[in-house]
Amino acid sequence: MIRLIYQSVSNKKNQFFLLVVQFTIGFSALLFGLGCVFNIMEYKKTIESLSPLDAVHAYIDEDNYLFDNEKGLESKYIRVFERLKKEGLVKKIGIFETMYVYDDISSQELKNESRLYVLNDDSLAMSNLHLNKGSLEPLLNYKSSMDYVPVIVSASFKTKYKVGQTYLLYYMDAQKNEYTKKKIKVVGMLDSSTRFWSGGATYISENITNNKKFILAPQFKPFELPMSYAYNSLFQLPENKKNKDGLIEISSVFKSSGLNAKYSLLKDEINAYNERRKIVTISTTVFASILLLLALLGSIGAILASISTRYKDFGIFYSIGFTKMNIIRLVIGEVVSVFLISFILSVLILKLLLSTLLIDEALTINFFVIFISFAIMITCIVISAIVPFVKLKNIEPIELIKGANG
Q1: What 8-state DSSP symbol labels residue 206?
Q2: What is the residue extent of each domain of the chain?
Q3: Contact 31, 347 (CB under 8 A)
Q4: What's the per-residue H, E or C state across 156-175?
Q5: Is residue 185 within 8 Å of residue 149, measured between CB atoms?
Q6: Which is nearest to 38 in space by CA: 193, 205, 207, 268?
Q7: Tens digits of per-residue pLDDT, 253-294?
């Protein structure tokens, strides 16, 4: 039967080629649209794992860099943050700093650079990270007297770092202006969907979906960059300050120290992101639906027309011992082959595009997206096969015999 289906498709390759092209474009658009929907869901889920959604991201006007030296500016930020806590305007202040660590510095070319984020205690306490292995507890209980730094790594590092193992890494100590060696112990591995703030942006969630490869560590060293305070800080407010007046009070504290602070709520950043993605998601999904519907109607028409012109072939099959059910299986096999080829091509093409031309979209065509698309494909197959099935079922044997003699 498989050989007959292959020969049948080969004999009508021009007709089948057009159907495959139509369905490939339709399924590609469908996969892209579903990928956008999944991306929106993952975006919110990722941010929720890093901080409460009612947290406030405060950032400082860049013009301040023109008037203060780095050390003086850093001290000013520290004093302001201490005052915010002392006056009860904020409950927690989560801060993180980006740094780069290396496996080896013995040669002129630094090897295996990795991005590591140093998180203060509040940043760790505010998070709700999802781990596949290990625990966040060692990071929360870290003491500077320990001879190693406990870290958790993203799922992208699963082949490089093993949970429970220790490693030596090197980083540039800005105060000493030399590379310092540090022993780390991997105590956990994050879920594959977990991302982290890229840092240094006015919107803290900007590009978060692209940030997949990183190491998280407790604060084993002082923060060295004013930018960490200026852009990489999140405020968790007390219940009585979660209103516009509370934000105004925070702004006034910054202003009294000569700093022009601006802020955004994480939930507002999520809403803004969803609005930006909504048009693309809806338009792509509608386009895919229309295209698949037209292709589906076209395929049904083509199959029915094909049946009407193939009585002679069916009659020959019938005369050599084929039953009507065998002929029905042949036609349905042709339908299934068109859909399967189209679906496989659409997955491969879209994955190629997302890894090259559309890499900035940060979409994930994962099992969930493929499963939903596959279910839709099965539905299309059933719909396409119903009418031919009924038509072939109602053909009398004498008509097939006449077709063979015609």
Answers
A1: T
A2: 2-46+272-405, 50-269
A3: yes
A4: HHCCCCCCCCEEEEEEEECC
A5: yes
A6: 193
A7: 888 888 888 888 888 888 888 888 888 788 888 888 888 888
